[in-house]
Write a structure and sequence with these properties.
Elements (H helix, E strand, L loop, with lengths): L13 H4 L14 E5 L5 E5 L12 H6 L12 H9 L1
Antiparallel strand pairs: 1-2
C-alpha cells in the first residue's frame, strides 16, 4: 500500500477533476477521499460508496459544498506558534 499526503498540492487541482463538463473525466470508483476524525484517525472512502450520485451530477460542485465529506481542516495553531515564537 502506498499512501501519499496532499497529493493534489503539487500535481493538480483535485476538485477540477471532479467536474463533468464537457465530459466526465473520472468515474465515481476512481475518486477516493480521506476524512480525519477528531482523534486524528483517517477513513478512506470512494465516491462509489454514495449511491445517490447520478451520471450527470456535477461532483465538483457537490464536493465543494461538503456533500461527500473529505473537507480539508487545517490546524494553524502549530504554525502560529512557530511564527510568533521565532
Amino acid at each position: 500500500m502506498l499512501l501519499i499526503d496532499e497529493l493534489d498540492a503539487s500535481l493538480h487541482s483535485s476538485p477540477t477533476l471532479l467536474d463533468n463538463t464537457p465530459t466526465q473525466l473520472l468515474d465515481s470508483g476512481e475518486v477516493w477521499l480521506c476524512e480525519k476524525d477528531d482523534q486524528g484517525c483517517s477513513e478512506l472512502f470512494s465516491l462509489s460508496d454514495f449511491r445517490s450520485i447520478r451520471k450527470p451530477t456535477n461532483k465538483q460542485r457537490r464536493y465543494l459544498v461538503g456533500a461527500f465529506g473529505g473537507i480539508p481542516r487545517v490546524d494553524t495553531g502549530p504554525i502560529r506558534r512557530v511564527l510568533t515564537e521565532g
